[in-house]
Amino acid sequence: MDLAKKINAIPTSKIIIFIVFWALTAWLLLPMVTLDKVELRNSMEYFYRAAGGVVLMIILFGKTVTDLLFSQDLSWRKSALYISFLTIYSLALAGGIIFMAIRILLLYLNANSSSFTGATDSGIQY
Fold this sequence. Notes:
The protein has one domain. The chain is 75% helix and 3% strand. It is built from 4 helices and 2 strands.
């Protein structure tokens, strides 16, 4: 009985903090995910907002890899399902970080190249 209580006893504060952290990350990255056309006058706002979101994703990725490789409780054996889902989650996070970094880089390069060439503010197509 004590074993089942210890495994299922995840504090709700940890769950709430995790959900709030992911909601903040999603809010920061949403414009970059749905980005089809951006005007140059708004590009730096998207750039800084997405950079903050990527920083939060890197923090989440580091926490996940730490949980995966360096378990805090060595007396309990982790199930294969837990490890496989944590591995898939970390790979999805790594893919999201790479995707967002490429989007930010393209936005930054397009914003800088058009300011040097003197192009009008007609928008960037992705």
